[in-house]
Amino acid sequence: MSTPTSADWLSHRSEIRVLDCTIRDGGLMNNHHFDDHVVKAVYDACVASGIDYMEIGYRASRKNIKLGEHGCWKYCQEEDIRRVVGENATALKLSIMADAGKCDYREDIPAKQESVIDLVRVACYVHQVPLALDMLKDARDKGYETTVNLMAVTTVGDCELEAALELLAPSEAQAIYVVDSFGALYPLQTRRLVQKYLQYAKAGGKEVGIHAHNNLQLAYANTIEAISLGANYIDATMAGLGRGAGNCPMELLLGLLRDPQYQLRPVLQCVAETIEPLRHELGWGFDLPYMLTGLFNQHPRAAIAYNAQPETGDIGAFFDSF
Amino acid sequence: MSTPTSADWLSHRSEIRVLDCTIRDGGLMNNHHFDDHVVKAVYDACVASGIDYMEIGYRASRKNIKLGEHGCWKYCQEEDIRRVVGENATALKLSIMADAGKCDYREDIPAKQESVIDLVRVACYVHQVPLALDMLKDARDKGYETTVNLMAVTTVGDCELEAALELLAPSEAQAIYVVDSFGALYPLQTRRLVQKYLQYAKAGGKEVGIHAHNNLQLAYANTIEAISLGANYIDATMAGLGRGAGNCPMELLLGLLRDPQYQLRPVLQCVAETIEPLRHELGWGFDLPYMLTGLFNQHPRAAIAYNAQPETGDIGAFFDSF
User: Fold this and answer.
1) Closest partner residue to B268 among A217, A218, A316, by Cβ?
2) Closest by alpha carbon to A236, among A71, A65, A55, A72?
3) Could you give all domains of chain B from N- to C-terminal order, each with its CATH number?
4) pLDDT tens digit string along A257-298?
5) What distance in Å separates the CA atoms of residue B293 and residue A21, rounded to the nearest whole number?
6) Residue A73 in contact with residue A39, Cβ under 8 Å?
7) Which of A224, A271, A319 lies at the smallest CB-CB distance from B264?
8) How much is the ipTM here?
9) Do B252 and A216 make contact, defined as CB atoms within 8 angstroms?
């Protein structure tokens, strides 16, 4: 593959794969309780706009679960998915995310020919890489495409990261994602990470992906930076819907990509008609508490707790708590 | 001055000057009808946080005005400013913006010793550069600091821009701003513009500034890019309050700058307690219509009209109109 030049992002690169994870990442804001019509609207928009993959939820262990505590998109059983997409006779590929340590992957993921899913995305923290490797092999052996999301990379030291990338480079994953779970990356840091990932991934014949969060209003900017350097697997969500401050907005991403494969209009309509009406209830998006967890490179849980208080909090005291 | 390195933006650079233009740019969303307590809260936060300049509004011609149509911050008469800031016995400097063609600058701007204002910022379009030069000279002759905002730079061809910069380089302005009025710049384009401005400005002993809009959620990213290259005059607003999609948020900017001169906490409190409560009424911030005017490099007026409709518009039809 040729080295991308600075002009490439204004042109287009056929290797780019756009993945919509609205329902999966957004599910972290409503315990995965999306009505079918919302999932269907996102699915239809993905199909109509030429998006490559749609991640429809997690596949999580159903052992010891409390019925009704989480919506069905936490488990993504085949019958739930088919209720929305049928046999998915479209060019759109479907993915699920399987979290290391939270998925009985050997039992819960059937052989590919029994599933409407195309891609299994394995998510892990750095200490779970050996487990992730087994999950990747399991998925590939069953016939799926696989990728790996190494989460919370801003908390991982260089030495540990390089060890992880050495292990992942020869794995079954077809792409390794730079995942800024805390929304703490500046573009300059994204640049260095993507360059490092590319070095390992390309040696293993793999692609690099980017999954950004918007705590510092930099999700899109970091995504542009990653694309300009050669990252080809790009996560985005409708209206940026995702945990906390949310993700890189799909409407911005498709506005950037010049590949005639992609159509912006269906995404605009999905955002305006289906996703924005959920904003008040779900409460994702940039705000001061999420900004502060990003700024201090921390999990958004403190901001989630701050925002869940019945009374408006004291932002000065919250700032002092870091 | 030394060439900045990529590490500089994580350190600090004493040449940086932060300018708050919340009331000035935000005034475009409410016809400059800010209550004094809002202006005072922004002023107090600027003082407490160590911000260098606060732009309190425009100084515009009062010929043929309809009384009450615009709030007093469109004119910034000395008595209005002093009602809020007294004699401004603080380290914060105050600025007004004077638009070329909209200000009777010879009469309406008194000698510096009669004014509580420190800096006169001249704003012009490229065809108004000769007028701006006269305004800059007038302001400097009267004893003020002056800078120039060359507006809507994304609509200016390279050849015209270079001619404008040649004229502005030897002018009285102490800084020349890259102004992305339409919020249409990507960081790569910001980089090229800032480099070009620096080339002319440094030859004339001047600084370069950046004034960004957030139509593509890139106001902060473009501001970071400009800072990393050596731009030292940085515009931002509380909660990003400004025309349309708004500006680079001050809370993000101060979160980035490591100079102990700046304190984030007073800005957080001003945003949470004074500015965010205005959001519903003023309606600034990123949305799909503002995104589209930015994407298509157009003045936000079409988005403003779309958002002012009594019924929710059809975003697909709006997209088709470009």
Assistant:
1) A316
2) A55
3) 11-286 (3.20.20.70)
4) 989 999 999 999 999 999 999 999 999 999 999 999 999 999
5) 26
6) yes
7) A319
8) 0.94
9) yes
